[in-house]
Amino acid sequence: MAFTFCPQCATPLVNRQEGELPRMACPDDTCGFVHWDNPTPVVAAIVEHEGELILARNKAWAVPFFALITGFLERSDPSPAEAVMREVKEELGLDAQGAHFVGHYRFERQNQIILAYHVPATGQITLGEELAEYRRIAPAKARYWPVATGLALRDWLISQGHQPQAFEVPDPRPKP
């Protein structure tokens, strides 16, 4: 979130050095507000259902891209593992049979830290309100996208003895 004004006293923020990094801060020394711009914690689930991976497409995405189930770590969540199991239930209607930590990954574009888990799940898939559709992928055929949750999927696939290939990322520059 980009702040222009101090959320405590409404003074326009200024860019100043805080430690070794420039930060937006309130120039009023009596206020002392500093916008640290810390990353937002997000949980991600590599959902395994009936021997296949479940990837989903969010309704808000403009292109047909399928990814892991993700959600914000809420203040009320007892732990990241319980948060990821909650997300699997909310988004897919599945019952998690555990959550096994895979790793943590930066998603710089959204200023997020991803806490990724492998989540074996049972039940019948019922899409939550945020999802448009899902796909089942055999782990041996899964490919990964080369950022954030895609790297978590890659690492999990390798830990399972697979040799996943990355999707080619198209070059956004115009062709000559």
Automatic annotation (TrEMBL):
<dbReference type="InterPro" id="IPR000086">
    <property type="entry name" value="NUDIX_hydrolase_dom"/>
</dbReference>
<dbReference type="GO" id="GO:0035529">
    <property type="term" value="F:NADH pyrophosphatase activity"/>
</dbReference>
<keyword id="KW-0460">Magnesium</keyword>
<dbReference type="InterPro" id="IPR050241">
    <property type="entry name" value="NAD-cap_RNA_hydrolase_NudC"/>
</dbReference>
<dbReference type="GO" id="GO:0005829">
    <property type="term" value="C:cytosol"/>
</dbReference>
<protein>
    <submittedName>
        <fullName>NUDIX domain-containing protein</fullName>
    </submittedName>
</protein>
<keyword id="KW-0378">Hydrolase</keyword>
<keyword id="KW-0479">Metal-binding</keyword>
<feature type="domain" description="Nudix hydrolase">
    <location>
        <begin position="38"/>
        <end position="159"/>
    </location>
</feature>
<comment type="similarity">
    <text>Belongs to the Nudix hydrolase family. NudC subfamily.</text>
</comment>
<dbReference type="InterPro" id="IPR015797">
    <property type="entry name" value="NUDIX_hydrolase-like_dom_sf"/>
</dbReference>
<dbReference type="GO" id="GO:0046872">
    <property type="term" value="F:metal ion binding"/>
</dbReference>
<dbReference type="Pfam" id="PF00293">
    <property type="entry name" value="NUDIX"/>
</dbReference>
<dbReference type="GO" id="GO:0019677">
    <property type="term" value="P:NAD+ catabolic process"/>
</dbReference>
<dbReference type="GO" id="GO:0006742">
    <property type="term" value="P:NADP+ catabolic process"/>
</dbReference>
